[in-house]
Amino acid sequence: MHCMPVDEARQPQLLRGVLDLCLLAIMEEEETYGYELTRRLRERGLSMVGGGSIYPLLGRLERNGLVETRRLAGRGGPPRKYYSPSADGRRALASGVAEWRATRDAVDGLLGPIEMEVQR
Amino acid sequence: MSDFLEACRREWKRLGVPDPVAAEMAADLEADLAQAREEGVAAEEVLGSGAFDPPGFAATWARERGVIPAPAASRHPAARWAVPLAFAAFAILTALGAAAAVLAFHGADVVGVARAASPHRLVSPLRDFTHPVGPPAEGLRPVAVVLLVVGLAGIALTAIFWLRRSDRSWRGPRAS
Questions:
Q1: Residues B82 and B13 in one domain
Q2: Would B8 be classed as within a structural domain?
Q3: Same domain for B17 and B97
Q4: Which of A76, B22, B93, B119 could bond B17 through an S-S bridge, CB–CB 3.0 to 4.6 Å?
Q5: pTM of the entire predicted model
Q6: Residue A81 to residue B66, Cβ atoms within 8 A
Q7: Whether residue B166 sits in one domain with residue B96
Q8: Cβ of B53 under 8 Å from any chain A Cβ?
Q9: CB distance B28–A57 less than 8 Å?
Q10: Quick one: closest CA in B to A61, which residue?
């Protein structure tokens, strides 16, 4: 069996389906604002969020009532919009994490045993 | 980067985003981009590919936030078909009504010719059959003809519309 080159465009696609959960998870740790969310994703190795931006996704979470927002002045800077999960957001996070784990386990069951050298 | 913000503001204005909402989004974006710049982080890391398309970025953000209407293509299918269906029904009803009126006038002409050539007694049963409530007013004949033409034109336009639409559906959307 030959080794296929790594598809560098795959990670953003994989992330796209769970990015809302990642954002809710970070907010669940601590109430935070847009840039800080981007930075924390980057610290966890999730730097390129699908070639897009988190702002539209934050807008969708807000529209769907999954986050609560308030404007706060932080670190001596200008007032910013801080996000935290709403009760619906926490429920969505819980069910989303369960779905993610089931999907991850199923994919691991298929791909986990495969050991091949990555060819670049 | 102020050019980017200005372009976003212009797009929000063009799309009709309420001023307070646009001001809030612009303020958040400005603060975030300033912090990124201080930390040496490229704008692309914050904005993704939107950094190269300010209007697209601004429109997507506003749409996802629900402060501008969704594009017409994403409306409910029933809403998209309501106007063409109403137009088609109007055209068909107009054509049918006008055709009935024109036929009634034609019937009146036949009776008139027969009456001129025959004694009244022989023609009266035919007249009673064609016009039980009396013959139509002669002045309405041009109106009926015009309505018939309008109705037929409406049916033709409706047919062209359906044919073009089904042709587009068959070929699928064109790549942009």
A1: no
A2: yes
A3: no
A4: B22
A5: 0.62
A6: no
A7: yes
A8: no
A9: no
A10: B65
Name the band, by pLDDT with cuts 50, 70 and 90, for residue A55.
Answer: very high
pLDDT in tens, A68-97: 999 988 666 778 999 999 999 999 999 999
Q: Which of A35, A57, A71 sits opposite B32 (nearest CB)?
A: A35
Q: What is the DSSP string of B11-80?
A: HHHHHT--HHHHHHHHHHHHHHHHHHHHTT--HHHHHGGGGG-HHHHHHHHHHHHTSSPPPGGGS-HHHH
User: Domain span at residue B9?
Assistant: 2-64
Name the pLDDT band for B1 (thresholds 50, 70, 90).
Answer: low
Rounded to whole angstroms, how far apart are CA atoms A50 and B144? 63
What per-residue confidence (pLDDT) applies to B130?
53
B94 domain-assigned: yes
Place of tokens 């212009």: B10
Query: Residues B104, B50: one domain?
Result: no
Minimal C-alpha gap between B102 and chain A (Å): 58
ipTM above 0.95, yes or no: no
In terms of domains, do B24 and B91 share one? no
Residue B124 pLDDT > 70, yes or no? no
